[in-house]
Amino acid sequence: MGPSDPAVGPPGSMMKKSVYREYYEAILVAFILALFVRTFVFENFKIPSRSMEDGLLVGDHLVVNKFLFSEHLKTPLHSLLPYRSPERGDVVVFKYPVDPRRDFIKRCVAIAGDTVEIRDKTLFINGVAQDESYVVHKSEGIIPNRPSVRPSLRPRDNFGPFLVPPGTVFCMGDNRDNSSDSRFWGPVPVENIKGRALLIYWSFDAQPSDGEWRSFGHRFKQLADVFVHFFTKTRWNRQFRLIR
C-alpha cells in the first residue's frame, strides 16, 4: 500500500476509533448485564401502601431477590443452586391475581395443603394459633363473619377454614386491619410470585399511592418533592435494613 491508500489513516484516528469501540463495548456489556440482573436476579420495589406496617413503611424502596423462586432454575443444575419454593413467613412480591399489571407485597402465611382459619383476628394454620410478632392491629373492634355484615369487610377478622389449593400460597399484610389480601381475593398462584423482599436500600417519607397513572404533572410533582426534601424526608435509620 502507498501512503495515499484510503484504507490507512493517521495513527491518532485509529486510536480514537479503538477508544470509542472500547467504550461502546463496555456500555453494551453493562447494559446487557443490568438487564439480565433485573430480569433474573434482583429488582427494586417501592412500598405504595400501609398494608405492611409497621415493618415496611410507605416510601421504603426494596431489593427483591428474583433468583430464589425463579422457574428458570429448574435445570440439570437445579440441585446445586439456592432455589426453593415460597415458605411461611416469606415477604413476597407478586403479580396481583385480580390485575396482573400491578405488583403487590405481602407475607406468605400458608402454603399449599395448609388449612387457614382466622378467629377473632388470631391466625390459625392447621389448627395451631400462630405467634406473629410482626403483625399489628390498628382497629380495636372485631368484625363478625355474618351475612348481615358487608361482604367486603366480612372476612377481615373471622375467616375460613380454607384449604390452600395446590400451586398457590395464602398471603396477608402485616397490618391486618388495613390490608387487601388473600382473605378477600383468594390465594396467590406460585407462578405470580416475582421474588422475596431482601432489604431496604432507601426509605423516603412519602404518601400512599394506588399505583394508578395520573399525569406527567403529577409525576413531576412527586419527583420535585423528592429532590427538594431528599435529606429531610429520607429515613436514614432504615437504610440497608434486612426484611424479616
Task: Briefly summarize what is shown.
By secondary structure, the chain is α+β, with helices and mostly antiparallel strands. The chain is built from 4 helices and 12 strands, in the order αβββββββββαββααβ. The protein is globular and about 65 Å long.
Structural commentary:
This protein has one domain: Umud Fragment, subunit A, CATH 2.10.109. By secondary structure, it is α+β, with helices and mostly antiparallel strands. 21% of the residues lie in helices and 25% in strands. The chain is built from four helices and twelve strands. It is globular and about 65 Å long. The strands form two sheets. Strands 1, 2, 3, 4, 9, 10, 11 and 12 form an eight-stranded antiparallel sheet that branches. It has a four-stranded antiparallel sheet with strand order 7-6-5-8, with no helix packed on it. The longest helix is centred in the N-terminal third of the chain and has 31 residues, at 11-41. Residues 1-8 have low confidence and may be disordered. The chain has helices spanning 11-41, 182-185, 216-228, 230-233, and strands spanning 42-46, 60-65, 91-95, 103-111, 115-119, 122-125, 128-129, 159-163, 168-172, 188-189, 193-203, 241-242. It starts with 10 loop residues before the first helix and ends with a strand.
